[in-house]
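G., before I forget:
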Amino acid sequence: MAHKTREQLIEVGLQRIHAAGYGATGVNEILQLADIPKGSFYHHFPSKEAFAEAVLERYGAGEKARWERLLGDKSIAPLKRLRLYFEDLMATYGRTGPISGCLLGNMALEVADHSDKLQPVLQGTFSAWNEAIAEVLREAVAKGELDHSAKPKELAAFLLNNWEGALIRSKVERSDQPLELFLHFTFKALLKK
Amino acid sequence: MAHKTREQLIEVGLQRIHAAGYGATGVNEILQLADIPKGSFYHHFPSKEAFAEAVLERYGAGEKARWERLLGDKSIAPLKRLRLYFEDLMATYGRTGPISGCLLGNMALEVADHSDKLQPVLQGTFSAWNEAIAEVLREAVAKGELDHSAKPKELAAFLLNNWEGALIRSKVERSDQPLELFLHFTFKALLKK
DNA sequence: ATATGAGTAGACCAGTCTGTCTAGTGATTC
DNA sequence: GAATCACTAGACAGACTGGTCTACTCATAT
C-alpha cells in the first residue's frame, strides 16, 4: 500500500506534535515510533514543515467531523448542542482526557509568527471552526434563544478565544477547573437572552 | 560588576524567549547576542531551565509593576482603570507593539506540561495577576459599577483566559482585531451591571 | 604578600537536529 | 522481458544542542 506509510507518519506525527509540540518533536522520533526509515519520510514530504501542514490538516479534518456530528444535530436546541459540544471537547482535550490541549492553539503560538506556510492553514482552520459555531448561534437567535442584537460571528470568536485561553490556564493549573469555569460563565452569564 | 552579566543574560534571554519561544532559543544564541562566554552562563545558572525560571520571574516582576501602576490609581473609576490597563497591554503586546504575545501564555503551552520546575512559577504568576484584576473588580462591585452577584475572582479568571485566547487568535490572524474584539465584548457586554 | 573564591573565557563533548545521497526493491507497463 | 516508477532503506552530512571542563583574571581579605 503506497499510502499506508504516509498515513502512519501523519498519525504518529499528530500524536507526538500534539503531545510535545512541533519544535520538540523530531523527525527521527516519529520515524522510530512508526518504524519507518528516513528515506520514506522525505519521499512523502519535502520538509518537516510540509509534514506539519499535513498533520494540521488531518487534525482540522478530525475536528470538523466532531463539530459536524455534535453541532449539526438539529433535533437538539442550538444552545444545548453548543454546550454538549464544548463538554465533548472538554472530555477529549481536558487534563483528564488522553491528550491535553488544542493542537491549533499550541501550534499557533509556536509557529504562526514564524512560518508563512503554516500560518494560513491555522488561519483557515480557525475560520472554519469559528463559522461552525457562529452558525449554531445564528440558529439560537432565530429560535429566540438569544437576543436579536447578538452578533453570531463576533460572539463565536469570543467563545473560541475563551476556550483556548481556558485550555492554557488549565495546563498551568494542571486541572480541568478553568474549563469548567469557562462552561459555567459562557452558558450561565454570556449566552443569556 | 558581579551582577551585570547575570542581568544582561536575563535581559537578552527574556527578549529572545519572548520572541522565539523557549525551545527555539538556544543558550549559544543568547550568549552570542549578549557577548558573554559560556562559562559565565553556567556559572550563574545551573541549567537552561533554571535560567528560564529567572527570565519568567523577571517578566512577572515587570508585569506586576504595570498592573500596580495602572490598576492602583484609585483616582480613576475601577472599570475605567481596567479598560486602560488592557488597552496598555494591547499597545504593548499586540501586533503593532514591539513584541507580540504574552510570555506567560507562550511558555505555559510550551513547558507547563513537561517542566515541574517552571510550572509552579507560571502558576504563581498567573495567580498574582488574577488576584490583581479580581481586586479591581471587587472595587467595582463596592462602588456599584458591577452587580453584587458578580464573582470577582472567577470573573477575573474568565477575563484573563479571554485575553490569552485573543492573543493566540491575533497571532493566527496577524492582526490586532481579535484584541479589539476582546475589549469591545468585555466592556460593552460582559462587565455591565 | 599571599590565599581565596567569584566570575570570565572558550575549547570541547556527546548527542541530536533536519535534510541528502545512493542503493535497492517490487510492482506495473509496454 | 526490459524499462520505468513509486517507494523503501539507512548511512551520512553538517550544523547545532545543552552542558562540562580546565585555565585564567582579578578583587578582596587576611
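The two ends of chain A are 55 Å apart (CA to CA). Chain A has a mean pLDDT of 94.

More on Monday.
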